[in-house]
Each structure stands twice: as C-alpha cells, then as structure tokens.
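Input (structure):
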C-alpha cells in the first residue's frame, strides 16, 4: 500500500470503519513508513483534544454561509469538521487543555493511548527493556523503576510465552508493559495501580483494527492489546487474570 492510498483511507481507518483486510494493509504500511505514522499520531492527538473540548453551536447565519460555499463531498465535510473543532479548541485556550488532561483518565482516552503505545513499540522495534522468558527475571527488573510491583505470569504452558517487559507511559503515569507472544502475534499488557474509583467490570473493545481487553484485579488495572483474534486474546486474558 502506498502513502497516497493510506492518505485516502486515513480518516476511515482512524474511525475504525475500514474492512479488516484494508485495515491490516494500512497497519502494515504504518509499520514501515515513519512519515505516515507521524501523520496518524498527529490526527489521533488532535482527535483526543477535540473530544475533550466543550461544544459550542455555530450561528445559523455562519452555518448557512459555509454550506453555501462548499460541496457535499464526504472529504470536504470531514475537513470542515476538523477545522471547526480546531477553532473551538483554540478559542477555549488553557481551559481546553485542562479538560483534555482530565479526559485522559477516561476509558476511551486510555484505550487510544495503549493502542498508540502498542503500535509505537512495534514500529520503533522497542518491545523490550528486559528480554526474557523467565518471569523471575522480568518481575525483579521493574524494582526501583516503578512505585509498584507488577504481577508477571508465565503462560507458556498454554501457548502464550512471556518474552520480556519494558517501561512505558499511559494514563499520565509510568506503567509496566509486559510482552507476550502467540505464534507471530505480539500481546502488550499494560499494568498500573487502579484508581480507587475505577470502573471494575471487564471491558472489551476494538480500535483501529486491534482488540483491547481491560480489567481490574487485586487493585491493578490491566490493558491487553493485540491484533490476535478475539477468541485467543480472550483465552489469554482469562488465563492471565486467573494466574
């Protein structure tokens, strides 16, 4: 897939509206093309900022003038939406930025962040700070680097071997990223202490072609992200929670 094709499908990809095959082609290109990856990261950052900003309805006179001067094409309507949202963000000023920081604690914003971190780790070839299949090597590595001790399980007996770990950043704080493998599929598990008021029921969703599982266990919040099929990822998460 070329850069031009990715640019054509980029908004649909970010809205999670592409079919599975095309989404996979786009991800493959993003894994190889730094320029397109930066373009995606910029769009995602703006999207999170826009979603957190207060909404102000435009005057009817302004809306009528805009509609009179534009076509009805999907691409133009999308561009106008982004432009209008950007104006709202700029007019909101520092208050908008504060709202964005608060929104980063919500589940949808956190899902965006862990997918970003998952993709970034694959693109930058930086899956590991410590590379090991031994849980007794990976777990002690985090001592002194985090203010908590992440649980590290060995699931190699059911076909999900631990392959390493690293420090990452999500939800406004450092987190432990545990890396597991299923054949050629990588599973990133982000672990951090759960806030006292966190919603504890397990949550499953898909975002930009990735499956995401979120749950809380023993006051730890877990986010598992992978392009592994849903059935196997569910099997992995259930085994990890039960370990």
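Output (sequence):
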């Amino acid at each position: 897939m070329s850069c031009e094709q990715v640019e054509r499908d980029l908004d649909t990809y970010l809205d999670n509206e592409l079919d599975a095959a095309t989404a996979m082609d786009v991800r493959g290109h993003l894994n190889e093309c730094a320029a397109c990856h930066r373009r995606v990261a910029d769009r995602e950052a703006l999207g999170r900022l826009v979603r957190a900003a207060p909404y102000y309805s435009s005057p009817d006179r302004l809306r009528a003038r805009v509609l009179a001067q534009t076509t009805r094409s999907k691409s133009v309507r999308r561009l106008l939406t982004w432009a209008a949202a950007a104006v709202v963000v700029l007019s909101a000023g520092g208050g908008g930025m504060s709202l964005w920081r608060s929104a980063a604690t919500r589940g949808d914003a956190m899902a965006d962040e862990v997918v970003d971190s998952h993709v970034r780790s694959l693109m930058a070839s930086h899956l590991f700070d410590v590379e090991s299949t031994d849980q007794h090597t990976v777990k002690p590595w985090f001592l002194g680097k985090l203010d908590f001790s992440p649980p590290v399980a060995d699931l190699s007996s059911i076909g999900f071997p631990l392959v390493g770990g690293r420090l990452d950043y999500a939800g406004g704080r450092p987190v432990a990223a545990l890396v597991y493998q299923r054949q050629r599929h990588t599973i990133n598990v982000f672990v951090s202490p759960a806030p006292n008021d966190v919603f504890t029921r397990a949550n499953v969703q898909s975002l930009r072609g990735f499956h995401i599982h979120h749950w809380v266990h023993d006051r730890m919040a877990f986010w598992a992200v992978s392009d592994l099929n849903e059935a196997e990822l569910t099997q992995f998460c259930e085994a990890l929670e039960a370990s």
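Notes: The CA atoms of residues 58 and 84 lie 9 Å apart. The radius of gyration is 20 Å.
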